[in-house]
Amino acid sequence: MNIDPRYDNPVSAIGRLALRKTRDVAARHARVPGVRALVRHERCTGCGACVRKGFCRFGAIRLDDSRKALVDDQACRGCTRCTHLCPRNALTMEIRPTAIVRETLRTLDKELGRVLDPQKR
Ligand code: SF4
Ligand code: SF4
Q1: What is the pLDDT of residue 29?
Q2: Ligand nearest to the Cα of 83, by number
């Protein structure tokens, strides 16, 4: 039986695990700190293209009851993708207050710390 030599080394195994966990955390939390998408309601026609065509890869945009686009603050990663795709230029970026940015960074640091050093709770 052929054993992949990478799996013989416990240090490599731990390294791989840490990397995977770090990636998981990054995938869940990665965002551009300090910015989020904002809908300019006066420009939004409610055409629904942003939802139908999946402008947002993170599912952060939906239509509200009045058929205007709505961005979920928690889900928006601040990637700006949607702002380039809206035919009405109704999506723009908003700079968030410093306190909110700090809170986001603190949460991320805390979770990364837990993943990388489970002893520290
Ligand atoms: S944000 Fe743009 S794409 Fe989305 S519903 Fe409004 S006008 Fe249409
Ligand atoms: S900025 Fe990126 S993550 Fe935020 S709503 Fe637009 S496409 Fe989605």
Answers
A1: 67
A2: 2
